[in-house]
Write a structure and sequence with these properties.
mainly alpha, two-stranded antiparallel ribbon, 11 helices, 5 strands, elongated, binds zinc ion, Phage head morphogenesis domain-containing protein
């Protein structure tokens, strides 16, 4: 087993199964999102290629002309909007699932320890559903360079439109026929720019620098980063609502070939242990796009916390901190 998983287990202590479960949900999500987003691009390219083939069918063997490009503009605009809409729906689901995975760890701990101490968990689900909802909202409200996530998703649609439009325009310029252009578009979106150099050397020479190597790369990167951020948002928000929360540990991912900001974040020491941040002082997560570092809450040991809960249950004044949490947070829901 990898070093980071060992570190995750030792940080979680008795709660290691739930920590692994949360990590697994998150990793499963990360693994399925790349092919899901790629397929949105592939389907868009297929529809555009289909339209080009239909044009060719009316005048077989004809070269693409300017009027064809003009006729395609409307469709490209529609496809850009469709892609952005579908991508947004996917992101909605990714954020939802990632937040839940993050919240889930603290939820499992609290529910089980409260039950063990004989305290009703009636408010627990409502409290954590609220945390969930707010964390999801926070993800959509975050901005980067002044842009909301929804704006950056919309940009991906525009990138698709711009690139495919460029390719069709270039096909018109060199007099390439519609059927060949349709095939080229499909291959490009599925396999990337590199595969086109031998078959379409003239075209690649002229516009190689203008078209991205992989048309879905930016969207994939955006999805990975925001899904990881959502997992962190849920993890931190739920931990902060928990009276057993002691700090947040940053575990460095082993897939860091070079030293970067994450090495510093994982080496942080404010007296709570290596890489552990005090509640309220959690670092921005992820450290960078494609970051696979782990953020895991450090909670009080189960026996110790259950003992505390039981003592407080029989005498609320014995633990003012728990009493305050119970009245101000738990009961407020
Ligand atoms: Zn990292």
């Amino acid at each position: 087993m990898s070093r980071e998983i060992d570190e995750l287990k030792s940080t979680a202590g008795d709660y290691w199964r739930w920590a692994l479960e949360a990590r697994k949900l998150y990793i499963d999500l990360r693994l399925r999102q790349d092919p899901e987003i790629r397929s949105l691009y592939i389907r868009a390219a297929d529809r555009i290629a289909e339209e080009l083939r239909e044009m060719a069918a009316s005048t077989p063997g004809a070269m693409l002309r300017k009027r064809h490009l003009e006729a395609m503009e409307k469709l490209l605009r529609q496809e850009a909007e469709k892609l952005a809409g579908q991508f947004k729906n996917q992101m909605d689901e990714y954020i939802q699932t990632a937040v839940e995975a993050g919240v889930g760890y603290t939820k499992s701990i609290l529910s089980s320890l409260f039950e063990e101490a004989g305290i009703s968990t009636g408010h627990m689900n409502a409290m954590l559903a609220g945390v969930n909802r707010q964390a999801v909202e926070a993800c959509w409200a975050r901005t980067k360079k002044g842009l909301f996530l929804s704006d950056r998703i919309w940009e991906q649609g525009e990138n698709l439109r711009g690139t495919i439009r460029d390719i069709i325009q270039e096909s018109v310029a060199i007099g390439q026929d519609a059927v060949k252009t349709a095939r080229m578009l499909e291959r490009y979106v599925k396999q990337g720019k590199k595969t086109l150099a031998s078959e379409y050397p003239k075209m690649m020479e002229r516009m190689g620098g203008r078209i991205p190597g992989d048309i879905s790369y930016e969207a994939l990167r955006l999805a990975r980063t925001e899904t990881t951020a959502a997992f962190g948002e849920g993890t931190i928000a739920a931990a902060r609502m928990s009276p057993s929360y002691k700090g947040m540990k940053w575990i460095l991912s082993k897939s860091h070939p070079i030293t970067d900001i994450c090495d510093d974040l994982a080496a942080h020491d404010e007296g709570l242990g290596k890489g552990v941040y005090a509640p309220g002082n959690e670092p921005p997560y992820p450290g960078h796009p494609n970051c696979l570092c782990i953020l895991v809450p450090v909670h009080e040991e189960p026996e110790q916390f259950v003992k505390r809960l039981k003592k407080w249950r029989s005498d609320p004044s014995s633990d003012p901190e728990l009493e305050k949490w119970y009245n101000d947070i738990y009961k407020k829901i």
